[in-house]
Amino acid sequence: MPKTIRLLYAASVCLLMSQITYAQTVRQKIRYEVEAGTYLSTTESNPFWIRSNQYGEVPLESNGFTLRAQAKKEYEPLIYRKKGTGKFSYGYGIRAVLNAGKVNQVLLAELYGKVRYGAFEFSAGRRREVIGLVDSSLSAGSYIWSGNALPMPKVELSIPNFTPILKNGLIAVKGNYAHGWFGTDDSVKNYYLHQKSLYVRLGKPSWRFKFYGGFNHQVQWGGSLLYPRVSNGKIITEYGTDWESYLFVVSGKSLYTLDTLVIQNGSASAEGGNRVGNHLGTIDVGLEYETDQYKWFIYKQSIYEAGALFYLNNISDGLHGLSFTRKQASSGVLKIIIEYLQTSNQGGPFTSARSTIAQLRGAEDYFNNGRYIDGWVYKGQTIGTPFIMPLRYTTGLPQTLDKNPNRIVNNRVNAVTIGVKSRIRQIDLLTRLSFSHNLGNYNIPLDYTQTSIQQQISAPVKRYTFTANLAYDNAGVLKENVGLSLLVKRSF
Questions:
Q1: Sign of the dihedral defined by the CA atoms of residues 354, 355, 356, 361, in that order
Q2: Which of 31, 64, 106, 293 is 20 to 30 A away from residue 22, measured at CA?
Q3: Can you give the pTM of this predicted structure?
Q4: Minimum mean pLDDT among 157-166, 193-202, 249-258, 304-313: which range?
Q5: In this structure, are strands 209-221 and 224-231 parallel, antiparallel, or unpaired?
């Protein structure tokens, strides 16, 4: 299967990107952007709110220069389609980033093609996205997939927008099914991502109240071990990647339900008798109230990883959010968001293996895994919430806490974030404050408080947009730091 999908991925990108030379019609213009800027700080690293949730484009190291360029084509609007063209449309995007300074890197931050037919979309490549019920425009980051790391290359079939399944619009759904490539980390090379999600909206578009619910399922699986291990008396050099293993990945079925822990290719034994792959995700609920003038949205993302949520042992953990939007406003305060992230419970300090009560299912150790040692990390950065970060990003902690700098040692976090978007004439303002209590994990207890503040100002000047971003971190899990980013962007 992996070889087939890899060929499909390559062919799809080539096919879709080949349309670029034919796309620049009156109604189907490509949008271009060029941006340049610099990062400055009082320490060797960029502050938390300058580098977090930037899709891996802003390096940890400060005092550098950045240059970015992109070209994108979105779907053709329905009103512009020619008679007989049906529901088909296509789009693509490419974005490159050059960072120079203490770290010199060239990033292909986006490269994708997409095809839409009706409500369905097929896409292939590296593409920005956020997964989970959340107000993504101002959120501190969706718990499982926040836009903090560089986008992962994937092939994906999806319903990207809520689409009614009844004529009256009472029930609408959205979701995705994807296969991605992690590459190589500290312990495994050439391993994969399995991803799927399904979300439901109850309520007609005209209703003031709408209810949301759904889930997402993420799995790290497959790959060859950089250092062989012994499991169930066997030397393991790679994890299963055949169809049988893939079905266990998709279903999430426990291998403890099998009569034997050895299936056709021995991958069950390789997985240590648990599940094939590292499974994690969230179950989300939300409630929206909307008038002509305002919109309120309240949401909760509950965390599952090692079984504690099934017994409601970690039900207090998760991302809790409330956003308020002034829909018709063009000045003053436009949006306010308040979020509370709790990951400190984790079902308690004891796993089922350390207790006579199997239902305890505690010490979930969020984002860490015993087989994929880097954990829920891609290219050195956390895929999920930026408050749970690899050791090398926690610049205020002793770097001797773990020999692997990409290992997460602080995943028991309670954090409050307040964000405000506002506008004064043509000037856009973004203000964000976060306060967190960092407790380490159950094996490495810590006790640090952290405050991070951001003030961003954006102003258009003719065809350019100038953005200044001032941020501050107090001394905690991060070093005390004041930083500034200055960017100028031209769109055409």
A1: negative
A2: 106
A3: 0.90
A4: 249-258
A5: unpaired
